[in-house]
Backbone:
């Protein structure tokens, strides 16, 4: 049984003079709508309207299947205070009847009221364990990870990495690339951990290019993507690159200019955009287009991986 969407998520063409005057066609790949348009395997996974949308489900589904097939009764994963991945994992765990533990970056959050995102995780049954940022960064070390899991009461649990990004996840995201074959010249996605871009590039056809817009500061993503592709495919796959100049210095930083852009995009096109991922992606594509990065006649597809 495949825990992946069968039909493609819908495409939406956007007519925006900032693109059209440069001869660039803009499409939106509406993966945020995937849960309302795709017939999931509801015999096992329950009501379709309760699923996490888009790339979160594409990355989670292969991991959930592996956990179920191995007989695990508990999932543990990682994320920040506003992690959509934590929310998606918590929702999936509730629907599947698997206990979930979220190891959350930032021990200062432990004594505060939960924000809306973490409150949703808790409502879906996820047990939250807050750790210092230094210990969170050290989780790549096997010994540090084992200590974290033991402390969180999750020893022996199925471990889903931060953002859901691992070799299994790339298989789900490669399907996203295959859905765009023959449709676009450039497929662009906002990047947190890089897993979606790594799989997307692998699924595209020769001559198509994947472009990632980081939402985090730092130049670590290229190495992460190469490492993921090597684990999954034995080496780098596909034509991909990163637009490194649009991360704004951190995951949740939303400067006033970006807020203004997002509000303007919503006003122009009737499509409110999520500030952290979607707005940063569309702002970067607008800036790149106006800078002449894409030759006239280029079709650019922005993959909308979270709810607008």
Residues:
């Amino acid at each position: 049984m495949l825990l992946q969407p069968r039909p493609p998520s819908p495409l939406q063409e956007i007519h925006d003079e900032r693109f059209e005057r440069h001869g660039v066609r803009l499409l939106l790949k509406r993966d945020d709508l995937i849960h309302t348009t795709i017939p999931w395997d509801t015999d096992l996974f329950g009501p379709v309207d309760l699923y996490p949308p888009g790339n979160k489900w594409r990355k989670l589904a292969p991991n959930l299947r592996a956990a179920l097939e191995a007989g695990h009764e508990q999932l543990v994963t990682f994320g920040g205070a506003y992690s959509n991945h934590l929310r998606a994992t918590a929702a999936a765990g509730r629907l599947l009847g698997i206990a979930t533990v979220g190891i959350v970056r930032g021990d200062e959050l432990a004594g505060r009221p939960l924000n809306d995102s973490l409150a949703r995780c808790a409502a879906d049954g996820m047990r939250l364990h807050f750790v210092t940022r230094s210990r969170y960064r050290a989780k790549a070390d096997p010994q540090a990870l084992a200590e974290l899991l033991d402390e969180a009461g999750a020893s022996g649990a199925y471990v889903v990495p931060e953002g859901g990004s691992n070799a299994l996840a790339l298989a789900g995201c490669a399907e996203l690339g295959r859905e765009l074959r023959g449709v676009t010249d450039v497929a662009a996605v906002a990047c947190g951990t890089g897993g979606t871009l790594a799989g997307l590039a692998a699924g595209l056809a020769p001559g198509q290019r994947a472009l990632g817009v980081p939402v985090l500061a730092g130049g670590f993503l290229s190495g992460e993507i190469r490492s993921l592709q090597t684990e999954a495919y034995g080496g780098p796959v596909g034509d991909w690159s990163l637009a490194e100049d649009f991360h704004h210095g951190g995951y949740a930083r939303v400067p006033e200019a970006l807020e203004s852009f997002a509000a303007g995009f919503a006003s122009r096109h009737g499509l409110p955009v999520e500030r952290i991922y979607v707005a940063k992606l569309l702002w970067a594509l607008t800036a790149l287009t106006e800078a002449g990065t894409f030759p006239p006649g280029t079709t650019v597809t922005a993959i909308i991986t979270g709810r607008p």
Q: What stands out?
A: The chain has two domains: 11-37+170-303, 42-164. Confidence is low (pLDDT under 50) at residues 1-7, 36-52.
